[in-house]
């Protein structure tokens, strides 16, 4: 029996603690913050010792193995001490993987991974497979593995989760794109972030399928540098591919081992070219696991996208209000702007993560009639866009942003919350930001 310490008491940490206890390990969970009451109750009910508001180093440094929350960066002193003592530090994903023989579909990318994960899961489930949804979304992978009732798992994986995976292996991997993000966690070295994303390919073999978007320049440059023993399945918006998927003349073409599937772009439940990439990736993954064309088509007709991702909120006097709060980097905003042809009032801002706004400069100039910068410190946004957008405003609350957007808009406009930034200056998280946006928009109807 080994002594396992869990650092972080959120969904992944509590799930890992439950799995460790179920497998007979000595378990201790430590969180420097305050645990949610629901998680405390779960730990108490299962007689798992824990602490909150501190880290007892004597206990922690004595661990045989540490399972670290993806939210804890390596530069934290406690992590440095553990590394100096050569203590194994792994992620909940790595730990859970040890206890399942299910096939794994692993999905990552700077943008689009939540939509692609939800769609892939939906297609597999609607086709009748016993499939679980986990990773960066849904219930903890480790918690689900305790019973291990599934033959397949679809996992959304962030770079932070991949960083502490070593023996983990995907049977099908999807890498959607790589654009600068979370550079504050990677010493502001883009290559470190790239290397992290490519960990999704580790341990894969020629029997495994690798689905990737081949117009993601950074991704393809990295593939040109290294060879991986996998079956390459490119997804393209501009070029026909014999094996993989591509968009041509308004139709998605998905080709896998001699089986072709064609679907009109207009029949997708998701709009925008970025969602064509997501849909083709999910469809390829489904075909890789043996789902037939008719089942895929049926599944597509019943899919609904995630909350806070280009989510329609209301149409008020001909003005469409769109909640894209999950757009926490510039690349996401690029795709969001490309999804609309109407004049846009854009709400951006928050905690800048080293953003380069040049990627959206032309789209903003072409489509945005007014920019509302929402945050505690908007000087970078204002400085970059002040000569690009006709109207630019500086606000420090969601209430002011929504009211101002209402005052500025006219019938035919789109009010788009697509922040490009983290939310922690004014909100708990991007979900909180999205919910507050929606509630303030709905107040416009009653006011």
UniProtKB/TrEMBL annotation:
GO terms classed as biological process: cell division; cell wall organization; peptidoglycan biosynthetic process; regulation of cell shape
GO terms assigned for molecular function: ATP binding; UDP-N-acetylmuramoylalanine-D-glutamate ligase activity
Keyword field contains Ligase: yes
Residue ranges annotated for the Mur ligase central domain, each copy included: 107-285
Origin: domain of life: Bacteria
Pfam entry (one): Mur_ligase_C
Residue stretches making up the Mur ligase C-terminal domain: 308-421
Enzyme type, top EC level: ligase
Catalysed conversion reaction: UDP-N-acetyl-alpha-D-muramoyl-L-alanine + D-glutamate + ATP = UDP-N-acetyl-alpha-D-muramoyl-L-alanyl-D-glutamate + ADP + phosphate + H(+)
GO CC annotations, alphabetized: cytoplasm
Subcellular location: Cytoplasm
Main location: cytoplasm
Keywords, alphabetical: ATP-binding, Cell cycle, Cell division, Cell shape, Cell wall biogenesis/degradation, Cytoplasm, Ligase, Nucleotide-binding, Peptidoglycan synthesis
EC number: 6.3.2.9
Gene3D superfamilies the record matches: Mur ligase, C-terminal domain, Mur-like, catalytic domain, NAD(P)-binding Rossmann-like Domain
Binding site for ATP: 109-115
The protein's annotated pathway: Cell wall biogenesis; peptidoglycan biosynthesis
Family statement: Belongs to the MurCDEF family.
Function recorded in the entry: Cell wall formation. Catalyzes the addition of glutamate to the nucleotide precursor UDP-N-acetylmuramoyl-L-alanine (UMA).
The protein, known as: UDP-N-acetylmuramoylalanine--D-glutamate ligase
């Amino acid at each position: 029996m080994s002594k396992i310490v869990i650092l972080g008491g959120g969904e992944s940490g509590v799930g890992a603690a439950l799995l460790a206890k179920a497998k007979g390990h000595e378990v201790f969970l430590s969180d420097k913050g305050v645990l949610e009451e629901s998680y405390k109750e779960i730990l108490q009910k299962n007689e798992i010792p824990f602490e909150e508001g501190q880290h007892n180093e004597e206990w922690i440094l004595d661990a045989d193995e540490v399972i670290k929350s993806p939210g804890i960066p390596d530069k934290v002193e406690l992590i440095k001490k553990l590394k100096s003592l050569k203590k194994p530090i792994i992620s909940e994903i790595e730990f859970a993987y040890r206890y399942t023989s299910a096939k794994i579909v692993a999905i990552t990318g700077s943008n689009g991974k939540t939509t692609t994960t939800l769609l892939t899961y939906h297609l597999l489930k609607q086709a009748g497979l016993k499939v679980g949804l986990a990773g960066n979304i849904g219930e903890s992978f480790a918690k689900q593995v305790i019973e291990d009732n599934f033959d397949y798992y679809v996992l959304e994986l962030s770079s932070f989760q991949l960083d502490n995976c070593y023996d983990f292996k995907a049977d099908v991997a999807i890498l959607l794109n790589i654009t600068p993000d979370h550079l504050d966690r990677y010493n502001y070295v883009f290559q470190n972030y790239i290397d992290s994303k490519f960990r999704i390919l580790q341990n894969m073999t020629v029997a495994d399928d690798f689905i990737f978007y081949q117009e993601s320049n950074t991704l393809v440059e990295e593939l040109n540098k290294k060879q991986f023993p996998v079956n390459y399945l490119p997804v393209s918006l501009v070029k026909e591919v014999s094996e993989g998927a591509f968009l041509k003349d308004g139709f998605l073409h998905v080709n896998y081992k001699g089986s072709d599937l064609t679907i009109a772009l207009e029949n997708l439940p998701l709009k925008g070219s970025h969602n064509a990439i997501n849909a083709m990736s999910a469809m390829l993954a489904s075909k890789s696991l043996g789902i037939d064309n008719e089942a895929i088509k049926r599944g597509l007709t019943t899919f609904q996208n995630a909350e806070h991702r280009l989510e329609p909120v209301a149409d008020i006097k001909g003005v469409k209000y769109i909640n894209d709060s999950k757009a926490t980097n510039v690349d996401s905003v690029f795709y969001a702007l490309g999804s609309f042809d109407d004049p846009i009032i854009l709400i951006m801002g928050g905690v800048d993560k080293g953003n380069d706004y040049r990627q959206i400069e032309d789209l903003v100039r072409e489509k945005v009639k007014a920019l509302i910068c929402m945050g505690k410190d908007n000087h970078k946004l204002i400085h970059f866009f002040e000569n690009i957008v006709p109207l630019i405003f500086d606000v420090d609350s969601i209430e002011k942003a929504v009211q101002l957007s209402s005052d500025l808009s006219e019938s035919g406009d789109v009010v788009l919350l697509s922040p490009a930034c983290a939310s922690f200056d004014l909100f708990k998280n991007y979900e909180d930001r999205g919910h507050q946006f929606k509630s303030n928009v709905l107040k416009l109807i009653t006011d």
